Amino acid sequence: MATPLRIGSGSHQICIQPVKNCKYAKFHACRQILRDKTVVKEGKAAILFPNANEVFYNPVQEFNRDLTCAVITEFARDLLAERGVKVVVPGEKEKVLVSLTEEDPEVDAEADLTTEKKNGDEESAVVATVGEKCELGLRVLEGLAASGLRSVRFALEVPGLLSITANDFSAKAAALIARNAQYNGVSHLLQASCKDASMLMYEKRGKKERYDVIDLDPYGSPSHFLDAAVQAVSEGGLLCITCTDMAVMAGNSGETCYSKYGSVSIKAKYCHEMALRIILHSLDQRAGVYQRYIQPLLSVSVDFYIRVFVRVFTGQATVKNSASMKYSAASGPPVGTECEHCGQRHQLGGPLWAEPIHDSQFVHKVLSAVAGNPSRFGTAKRIEGMLSVVTEELDDVPLYYTVDSLSSTIHCNTPPLLKFRSALLHAGHRVSISHACKNAIKTDAPSAAIWDIMRCWEKMNPVKREKLSVTSPAFKILSTEPSLEACFTAREDANPQSRKRHLTRFQENPHAFWGPKARAKAGGGISTNLQDKRKKFQNKRKITDSSPLKNFPCKRFREVGLGISTIHTHNTHTSIVLCLLQISLFLVFFVVLHLCFMFSI
Asked: What are the tens digits of pLDDT across the range 547-561?
């Protein structure tokens, strides 16, 4: 007799009895699992979700999960090649080199051939495929797994894995993870866990128990888990960290950012790249406590969150040199109390990670793999566009300017991006775009050169100087004559290759209310819809038929009396007319009384 299948634990355990000698046995089992559940398909995974909002799921994060699968695949390819294991990805043909630079493609081709020879040309004793356990493979932990969708996709789409631990503190989520593992047939790779994520990682701090890959995608800030994560990852292992608390990291609350990440954020146009450098600094600082340091592979700002992929190594000498990467001893203040260009006070932020936030060689590998196998991911076009822009960035230039903010400062028309980049190139400076902002300018030009170019542009598109305040930044900047003659003639190399190839670089929101979803309710049930919250707490002064707002007049209403009745209105003209009408009625009433009195005499 067939053995019944038990999934979950405690009160959430279910039992499925297979039907003997029945070709529809799998159908009967699935039908029992699917009761009160919704099936969501993403990639090669089919995930069961409760109809109530008991377990968190956000379809917007498909790009995040696709990118993570692509990064872990290339990380496994490099790491397992050292162990004599060849990684095989379904649908992957001969590797295609994606070169976005026109300077020296032969150098890139030579480097790619060297990597190919290292990874695949030599006959490997072991071949790792998706869905199969590899004894020399990677140990993966998803600390906050929710439904287990990401872990199931790892098991079905990423080759070279030894085990996957999908953990969640919610018992309902852990039971759902076990169901989804059984439903997708990956129980031999994926184990569900119901523990506190930090405690689980602290338990695995031993060198022989550490994880090769740790993925943390919390609802909000990951700061609570960073200390445990940098200890539980193996030597040269991969940390995948997501931050969705962008309001804190983008400058809305610098004090909160300092308490969580050890850096003060500034509210500025470059806030998204600053957020990336803040989380990298925080990771490096916490790793340094244990004589470890980080090496960023890829750092991206996407939609409403940021995502970083870093490797962690151990080395006392490198940790000591880490301070020189972010700080340097100075004999005095590096700047004055006021900006030499606009005359305004400086804003102090940081400390930040000042080194490159990407590994260009690794990013090219991921880009080549995604471009060579476009049917593997549903968001392959966006991944290709995003990584293409990343490869074009100046990796040694922190932060960026935005052309619209420069123009807004001096109250002039905004120059086209192509002309502004051309002016910087004509002046002998390097320039690139940024994946974090579509109108960003990353350049090694000093601030004086930037404002000289804007002064030259203002002469071509003059502003009304007489309307500028003497104390305004615009007046101070435009009062100085430019020290160079900017040339705005368009140059061919000012147009990025990703733009010439019409790649999907900065995707627009596909529909309204695109962004983070409501948090799952701990006790189950349906949580309040975000749109309903917006209607309840916004536009309170706007009275609609459906909104039960206060039905009494505010203090700004003018009270106009008409006999025994009273009218409230905001309209000044209406108030005057009603007052005149009231005065006329009183006069008529007075005349009638006077006539009656005369006739009575």
From this structure: 444 454 554 444 444
